[in-house]
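Worked Example 4.2. Consider the chain below.
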Amino acid sequence: MLYILSQIAGWIATFLRAGGMLAKEPMTIKLLVSAGNLGWLISGILTANVPLVVSNGLCLIIMVVELVRKGGNKKG
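Applying the procedure from the previous section yields the following structure tokens:
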């Protein structure tokens, strides 16, 4: 069952990241790529794939920090 869930998460992540590559707006790109990273992170956790978890976890953290920083700039 975990294998099936990991495959579903991986395919959703694939389409989200591809959508991010096709998007035009920077915020849309970042949101889609972040969602894709989250999907790959979940897939990596479900399959105990440490490199997948670490690489996508790191990318997700960086992107969230970037999104928070950009969001803070809009208030000022």
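The first helix runs from residue 2 to 22. The CA atoms of residues 27 and 71 lie 10 Å apart. Compare this with Example 4.1 before moving on.
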